[in-house]
Sequence to fold (193 residues):
Amino acid sequence: MKNLKILSAVALAAALFFPLNASRAHAYDLQHARAQKDLTPALEQSLQDKLSDVSGPYFDEQDEKKAKGQVYIDLLQKFEYLPTYGPHNHLVVSCKLGGVEYNPVKPGTNKGLATGNLKYLVFTYALENGRWVSVSKPKWETQNLGAAGTKQMRENLAHGEQRKAAMEKTAQTHAAAAAAAEAAQRAADRSGQ
Fold:
């Protein structure tokens, strides 16, 4: 009788641990698999096409501010995509376009003096029936780096400009040397004929 009770308990535990409809439960999980976190290349390209159409006026606006000597944002040309998946794999993407804020009338770099703010323009789009639809109006977000961060940013920007100028000078020197070597080779070829 004791063995029968133990055997029954083991059978009950096995039945609970290994349900008879395990294959059905496994199939259910596969039907509701988690959505991928990154955008596919095709979706990213279609979103880039959409954003290139709507972001142009913001670049123009910042160029106008710079030309007028007003504080402006040096927007980068690349978006950062932050996809989120809701119920039924509904895809919503926040697209951030950021840059450093400069005051062009104050000396610092050739772009002006960095204010210590990073500004981001955020576009939010949802994928509906294979098309990107705007969820909300684009909005600006600001990240203030504080005094220490501003100082570090200005030093890094100045160092970056110095490095860029040195690289351009080196490239010019190499180009001039290559042109001189080519001219000497042509002269030698002519005299050898």
